Amino acid sequence: MPLTIALGQFDVLVAQPDANFRTVRRMTAEAARNGANLIVFPELWHSGYDLAHAADYATPTDQGVFAAVADLARENRIGILGSCLAKLGPARIGNTAVLFGPNGKSLAEYTKIHLFRPMEEDRYLTSGDRGVVVDTPWGRAGLAICYDLRFPELFRAYAVAGAEMIFVVAQWPLPRQMHWETLLRARAIENQCYVIACNRVGTVGNTTFFGRSCILDPSGEMAVEADKDETLIMGTIDLDNMKRVRSKLPAFADRRPDAYGKL
Question: Can you tell me whether residue 45 is helix, strand or coil?
Answer without folding.
Answer: coil
